[in-house]
Amino acid sequence: MVLDELLLREGQEHRLPGRLLVHIKQGRVPLGTGDRILFSSKLRRPRLLGLPGESDYPRRLAYQGIFLTGFLKDPGQLVLLESGEGWRYDIDRLAARLGRFLMEHAPPAEAGILKALLIGDTGDVPPELDTAYAVSGVNHILSISGFHVGIIFLCLFQLLFMLARQIETLSRLCNLRRTLLLVALPAVVFYLFLSGTQAATLRSVLMIVAVLLALYLKRELDPVNCIILAAMAILCFAPETLFNLSFQLSFLAIWGLVVLSPQLAAPFSRIKGVRGWLLPLAAASAAAILVTLVPVAFYFHRVSFTGLLANLAVVPLMGYGAVVVGFASLPVCLIAPAAAHPLVQLAAALVRFSDYLIVHLARLPVWNGYCPDRIDLALSVAALMALTLVRSVRLGQGVVLLLVMVLVARGIPAARSADGQLTVIFLSVGQGDAALVRLPDGKQMLVDGGGDYGDLELRVGERLLGPALHALNVDRLDYLVLSHPHPDHLQGVLWAAANLEVGEFWESGIPGDAQEYRKLKWVLASRAVPVRTVNAAGAPFKAGGVLVEPLWPEQTVAVSADENDNSLVFRLRHGQSSVLFTGDLGGEPETGLLDSGRTLAATLLKVPHHGSKYSSSVEFLKAVAPKAAVVSAGFGNNFHLPAPSTLWRLQHRGTRVYRTDLEGSIQAICQTDGTVIIGAPWGHFN
Q1: Considering the entire predicted model, what is its pTM?
Q2: pLDDT score, position 143
């Protein structure tokens, strides 16, 4: 929800210099454009976390004029003061009414997808289906795109043409085709606003306008010029759209369809029948996948070639089926709801079948090992420009082949080198723990993965941990470690187990009750990942060129009802350097560790429980005697961590303290002579 009018504070009105983005954790808000509302929320400036590979969220919001964000737990925390007015408000009300009709006349899952297909509202799409469509490479079908607009425009034109052709007078008075194309245009423009004025929809409408202008001016139609004209028109009114990912992918995809698709389909042009109908569709699908492959891998860190198969199934079912039938039901539901019910049911049945296919296709492997950079992006665009601008087809194809060979050569991953150093990168994933350990022999370990970020239930693995690991060129984890099954440690581990190659999984052996923990165990079993129990009952062992010393818990039976106190604690020793990982250990188990007589001394300490005042006692810090300590905490978190008393105890001992909430991700290089080199190369302002 975006607000852009007034901010009320201490009984006085202050006009906002920009716009305000308000997140609502649960529930839907039945508001429209122009509504005036009252609510109380703590406002914050968007900021970077300081992660490698992090998306520049503050800049993306700034392009939209948004400079502050707020949070509400549920819609009950806001009060509607005055309803909006004007045509935009009326269109919003109509969209809400149509959305309610779809939810009432179709099963929830299918209704959510129909709302996304028909009115651009993705709020009710089930997360598991959203993920399945994304993994299968067909998530474009869930957003209003140029394809939807084109299908609707053509169907409307054909319907009008069939009706008008019955009236002979009209055929004598005007050019029926050109006139009806113009008559159908207002309906498409109305649909543009009904569906939220998305970049792909606007692009399609502008291209339709360009085509109509060419027809009326009797000028030769050039598809590439239409694309350029639509892009320039959008950028003239909103230059910041150039940096919008939807804008970039939309124009790249249509550019590829226009330029590359005919060349892919040309060798099969003589094939007739069903295959002759399917092959152009396959060529279009392949063209869209190929031209967007590098940008998609750059932004989303995965490539799915199943999109070729998925598009062959989904485009007819959803595009020519569910979209056409569903769109036909929308005006009918306003006049005769009972008559629209069968249409919605038919559209829902098509969606259900599509969902079934996509869920199964999503289980096919996805390529996660390709991490292109901006040079690769430039090379991919240069290849498309060569196909467009080089007049000689053979010369253009030769240039493209050369550029593709360069891209392939750059995409071959370099072998991981063993530098003989122990490097720990404490990732700034908000109020959670995640640490990537690069071992002396080149192997890699992830200790916890963060999760439950803030109040937004952000998918930490997909949006934070994944991009960070890909930016660090991590496509395999030799060791995946979970300290304890709390969401702020577990959710990222679950993502890593499901999306990366994992050599071995370590845990304390004390099972958790959380549903996500059970899902993690299922993922590990389904991928045949070996599970190793690591606790103080076992002897120290070698891994990756370091000595691993398990220190806590002492057995596989829970010593406390608090899962924090059952955290896996272990030390990595590399020469005279050592790193102590402590999970969310509390005060009582710290005492148990001290009483056990085990050696706790460490060069570098991961401060227990995000710096809680109940951890890191004076006695514990005396036994560990760290040169440096890292606190993993979220900026401005609701728990007020790290506690000032904990920071004082650390600093009083002369320990250098580093904080992910203030400095971003922390990198520590531990050398064999006991030297620790620490910095924050991905800090908030880098």
Answers
A1: 0.82
A2: 74
